[in-house]
Each structure stands twice: as structure tokens, then as C-alpha cells.
């Protein structure tokens, strides 16, 4: 069911655009029947539920089906996908450092545009981890087009320090030096995701991690714990096995950082 999003914070009030998108959804699409492909007719609300309620075994196939419709020119399918990912775009507007430098409404417009571009340019050959791929692509667009303006430098971090922070996503941490000080703080799922993507981009460029390893860490970093559990199940493995692999890859990345004493300028 399409519901209005309450996204206001004392610093970042973005109800304007979100409200407009939700009103457009309710007026034009929510109760309007539409044929998706050649075999299913649904209202917008039903199509959104079709995606959001998908059980783990069929989630990828449902999102991939909607993407096939969208990339074949079905603008309603495209809009359904955007509505499904609108909460992610709102999070990006509130948390990606490059967007935080903008006015709130501009930040949300940029985040929504990145999510929309990710949908429009999705490679249909990718049939697994569909939602993770969409989110990663949107983040890559944001971090490339809107680099952060504040200078934060990633300092040398040992595997032991990174291990103490737990897992990636809401349990991941890196050492950061800012204005001559050093602190160790967690990177929450809703905070500094662009920093994680920048680190992974560096790891890919210098060969510290293989493309598959970068994809695993990147996908893990963009999903919630529940989504990671679903992802592991779709891959035919246990969640603990996935966490163990991520832990090993974190240590591998930390060793690479230590060897090169990585310094980054603006993230």
C-alpha cells in the first residue's frame, strides 16, 4: 500500500517533494488498473504490494519482471519501482554527505533523480540481488556527481580495530581524522554510506578486492539486516555464513588499507 512518508527532521524537512510524489501516486496511479506485460493487470497499489510483499524465493524475479516492463517503455512500471524505492531516496537525502551540503529540497531531488536513473539504466542481465544492485547504482551516481565538501581523511586502520566494530552496515566502523583529531565511530546504515562506497571504489581500482568481493561488501552495506538474511537465503546459504565472509573481506580490506596508508581528501 502506498503511504505518505514522514521524513521531517529538525534540520532536514523534505515533506514538499515527497508529499507531491505521494499525492501524484494516490491521484493518478494508486487505484488505476494497468496491464504489466502480457499477463497481469493490477492497480498501482496492488503492483507496489506485489513487489514489497514478495517472499524471498521470488523477490528477485518480481523486481526483475517490473524492470523488464519499465525498460520496455512502461512508464507506470517505472513509477511503481520509484515508489518502492522512495524511502531509500529519502534516506540518501538525509545521510549522503555530498547531499547534506545542499538545501533539503535540492538534496531530495538529487537523490530521487539518482534512484530513477538507476532504474532506467538497469542491466537486465543482472537477475540476482536486484534491489541491492539498484541501490548500489544509485549510491554510485550520488557519490560520483555530488562529492562531499567537508574534508575527512581515512587514516590507517588495522584489522583489529575494524574487527572491534562488528559488521558492515549498522555495525561497521572506520577510523576518521577530522580537523587534526582522531576518533573511532560507527558508520550506520543511514549515515556515511557514501564513504563506504568510496572505500570500495578505491579497493576495486587498486585491486585490493576482486569485483565479486566489492559487490558482496557493497550489497551488504546497502541492505538492512533483514534484507541481508533474505539475500543469504536466496543465495542458498546461511546468514552466519554471509557474515563470516563479510568479516573476512573486511579484514582483507583493512590489511590493504594498512599497507598503503590510504589517505583520501573529500569524500
Folded structure, characterized:
With 267 residues, the chain is mainly alpha-helical. It has two domains: 15-145, no CATH class; 153-260, no CATH class. Helix content is 61%, strand content 9%. It contains twelve helices and five strands. Strands 3-4-5 form a three-stranded antiparallel beta sheet. It is globular and about 55 Å long. The two termini are 37 Å apart.
Number of domains: 2
Succession of helices and strands: HEEHHHHHHEHEEHHHH
Major sheet, described briefly?
Answer: 3 strands, antiparallel
The geometry reads as globular
What structural class do the secondary elements suggest?
mainly alpha
Radius of gyration computed on alpha carbons = 19 Å
Percent of sequence in beta strands:
5-15%
Question: How much helicity do the residues have?
Answer: 55-70%
Number of helices: 12
Instruction: Tell me the total number of β-strands.
Output: 5
User: What is the average of the pLDDT values?
Assistant: 75
Oligomer state equals single chain
Strand order of the largest sheet: 3-4-5
Short précis:
The protein has 12 helices and 5 strands. By secondary structure, the chain is mostly helical.
Question: Which key terms come to mind for this protein?
Answer:
267 residues; mainly alpha; three-stranded antiparallel β-sheet; two-stranded antiparallel ribbon; 12 helices; 5 strands; disordered N terminus; disordered C terminus
Detail the topology: elements first, then pairings.
Elements (H helix, E strand, L loop, with lengths): L14 H15 L3 E4 L3 E4 H9 L3 H16 L3 H21 L1 H4 L3 H17 L9 H16 L7 E2 L4 H6 L7 E7 L2 E7 L5 H14 L4 H12 L2 H10 L4 H22 L7
Antiparallel strand pairs: 1-2, 3-4, 4-5
Amino acid at each position: 500500500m502506498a503511504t505518505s512518508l514522514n521524513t521531517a527532521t529538525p534540520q532536514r524537512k523534505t515533506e514538499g517533494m515527497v508529499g507531491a510524489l505521494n499525492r501524484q501516486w494516490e491521484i493518478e496511479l494508486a487505484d488505476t488498473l494497468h496491464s504489466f506485460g502480457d499477463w497481469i493487470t493490477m492497480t498501482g497499489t496492488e503492483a507496489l504490494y506485489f513487489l514489497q510483499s514478495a517472499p524471498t524465493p521470488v523477490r528477485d524475479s518480481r523486481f526483475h519482471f517490473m524492470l523488464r516492463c519499465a525498460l520496455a517503455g512502461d512508464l507506470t512500471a517505472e513509477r511503481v519501482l520509484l515508489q518502492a524505492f522512495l524511502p531509500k531516496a529519502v534516506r540518501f537525502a538525509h545521510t549522503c554527505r555530498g547531499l547534506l551540503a545542499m538545501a533539503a529540497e535540492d538534496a531530495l531531488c538529487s537523490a530521487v533523480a539518482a534512484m530513477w536513473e538507476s532504474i532506467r539504466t538497469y542491466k537486465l542481465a543482472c537477475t540476482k540481488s536486484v534491489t541491492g544492485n539498484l541501490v548500489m547504482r544509485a549510491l554510485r551516481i550520488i557519490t560520483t556527481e555530488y562529492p562531499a565538501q567537508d574534508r575527512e581523511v581515512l587514516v590507517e586502520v588495522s584489522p583489529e580495530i575494524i574487527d572491534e566494530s562488528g559488521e558492515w552496515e549498522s555495525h561497521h566502523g572506520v577510523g576518521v581524522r577530522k580537523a587534526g583529531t582522531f576518533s573511532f565511530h560507527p558508520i550506520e546504515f543511514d549515515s556515511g554510506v557514501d564513504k563506504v562506497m568510496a572505500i570500495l571504489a578505491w579497493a576495486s581500482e587498486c585491486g585490493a578486492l576482486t569485483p565479486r568481493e566489492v559487490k558482496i561488501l557493497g550489497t551488504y552495506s546497502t541492505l538492512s539486516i533483514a534484507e541481508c538474511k533474505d539475500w543469504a537465503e536466496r543465495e542458498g546459504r546461511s546468514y552466519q555464513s554471509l557474515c563470516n565472509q563479510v568479516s573476512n573481506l573486511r579484514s582483507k580490506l583493512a590489511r590493504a588499507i594498512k599497507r598503503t596508508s590510504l589517505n583520501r581528501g573529500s569524500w
